[in-house]
Amino acid sequence: MSSGVAARRDAKKLVRSPSGLRMVPEHRAFGSPFGLEEPQWVPDKECPRCMQCDAKFDFITRKHHCRRCGKCFCDRCCSQKVPLRRMCFVDPVRQCAECALVSHREAEFYDKQLKVLLNGATFLVTFGDSEKPETMVCRLSNNQRCLILDGDSHHEIEIAHVCTVQILTEGFTPGGSTRATGMFLQYTVPGAEAATQLRLMAGEDANGSKRQAAAWLVAMHKATKLLYESRDQ
User: Fold this and answer.
1) Sign of torsion, CA 5 9 15 18?
2) What is the DSSP letter of 68?
3) Which of 25, 29, 90, 163 is deepest in the core (most CB within 10 A)?
4) In 3-state terms, the chain is what percent helix, strand and coil (to 5)?
5) Opening angle at CA 182, ends 176 and 187, nearest 5
6) Cα separation, 31 vs 196, whole angstroms
7) Against a cut of 0.85, is the pTM above it?
8) CA nearest neighbour of 121 among 142, 156, 151
9) Over the stretch 177-214, which tens digit does the pLDDT of each residue have?
């Protein structure tokens, strides 16, 4: 990929919406597949009362719109200002209690797991029906749109084309939970009739890369959930 194309993919601009300032991709086609669109606000004339506690709006009890769901609430039911990175807001924005809880949980993905995906991990990668795996580093691209696999060969898989993700596990840890050891992935290729299959397995070594691979798989599992939510929006 040329540096010019890469620069266009990563270019961003600052825009102002009724909900606040947002730092969005300059070209909509290059937006993160984990992103969410801003909701349409419920019109003021359609919500004379708080949609949570049913308090009547007047000069004292003012109405506020949750920036995540777009519904109307009183100040008591919509007082929290929480980061909403899936909508690219620069500053924390007002959200109702239910949406704020979801946004707080998602913050863990952006603060911790996204960094793990961007840093990448080493896997034994098998494409399709091949019997010989290739040692490759798999990471998420900086614009979050592609899985990049580098080894003796180079592959880029658009996240938007991924149709199936299955995390492979084995055994039990002392805490009673299973341990991630690999991932089975299917994705579509433009022009191809059938989906392409890909298998990633953590290698056996003693230098810590297996633990790094396991952490990457856990982060990918969380990313998959966000991806499906974005598609269902």
Assistant:
1) positive
2) T
3) 25
4) 30, 35, 40
5) 130
6) 24
7) no
8) 151
9) 678 889 999 998 887 788 889 999 987 665 567 889 99
